[in-house]
Amino acid sequence: MVRSFRLRSPWHLESLALAACRRFAPGAVAAAVAMASPLLAQTPPPAGTAPTAATATAAGAPAIPAAANPTGKKPQLVVDERVFEAGPVARDQVLDHTFKLRNTGDAPLNILGVTSAENTELLTHPTVIAPGGSEELRIRVPLLNDKPVALLKQLELHTDDPATPSIILELRVMSTEYVGVRPGYARWISVQHEKPGTISQHLAATDGQNFDVLKTTSPPAGVTAVITQVKKDPAGPKEWNLDLTLSDNPPVGPIEGTLLIYINHPKQSIVPIPLSGFVRPVLAVTPPSLSVGDLTLAAKQSQAFLVKAFSTQAVHITSVEHDLKGFPQATIETRTDGHEYKVRLEFDPATMPKGPFKGTLKIHTDSKNMPLLTVPIDGTIR
User: Across-strand partners of 354?
Assistant: First the structure.
C-alpha cells in the first residue's frame, strides 16, 4: 500500500528530514536534508516559532547559544593587572596582593569559583560584580611555606562571562634567602634507646652582612637545639652552627614540625628548618590490644600476635603467660630469630567458661630496655 503525504510547509519538511535521522540510512538522511535546505533558506518560520540552532545555521545566520540571555545583555570581565611582578622578597615575609576586577558589560557578572595555588591564602573575593562596577580579589602568600626560589602563584577565576569563562591571574615573586642554612632540614629514622643522632646546620649571610642568632622556637619532644658562633675569618661576618640532637629516649611516633631561628639580619628575621622522621620502639606487638566482642565458639579458634624487634641488637622472647581463666597456654613461634616472633593464643570451647572475660597477655623478653610487653584482652563467650 502506498501512502501519500501533504507537506504543509518547508518547516514540516524539516521535521521529516530530522525524523529520517532516526529511521533510515545515512544516504536517505542526506537526501532529505538536501531537499529541505533550499526551501528553509528562503522561507521564514511560522509566526511565534523561535528558530533552533540548526535552522539558524541552515539560513546562514550564526547559531543562538542555548543559554543566551533573552535580553541580549551580558557581563564582561576586565582585569587591570593579570600578572603582578613582586620581584625579590625575603623568604620570611608574607606577601599580600590585590587584583582589581571590573565588569564593563551590561549584565551582572557572577564569580562562579576561584582555584588557588598551593601555599596561597584566598582572603577575599567577590561573588557578583554589578554592571559598570568593580571589586577586589585579595590573596596572601606566606613565603616561609615555600623554598627560596622563583615562585609562580596562579589563580584561576571562573565566571559567567561568555567571552571569558575562565581567566588566569599570576603573582610572580623571587623568594630570596639573605641568610642561608645548610643542609636546611633535619630528618631522623631512629629506635628508642639507640645512640642519639646529631644533625648540624650552618648559617651564613649570602650578602656579607653581620647578624646574630637571637633565639629559636621549641623543637619537638626528644630534640634539643644548641647554637654556637663560628668565625672562620676574623675580618669577615659572623657565621653560626646549630646542632639538632635526638635524645636516646625520645617518644615513639613521628617527628614533625618546623624549627624557626630568629636573627637580626637587616633584610631577614627568620630562618626555617623543617624537621621530620620517625622513632620506633625497641619492640612492638601487633595488635597491641584485643577486644573480641561477643564470640560464639563451636570449635577451637586462635589469635596470633606478631612481635617484632626494631633495635639493632637481637631481642628474644623468653616466655609468655596470661591471666585469662579457661584459656590454654599461649605458644611462641620463631619467624626470624632475635627479630620476629608470633605468639598464638587459643580459644577452646572445651575449657573456657561462657560469659565475659578480661585479662592480660604478658610477653617476656631478654631486652633490658623493654623486658615486658603487655596486651589487654577482653570479650564475651556465648
Answer: none
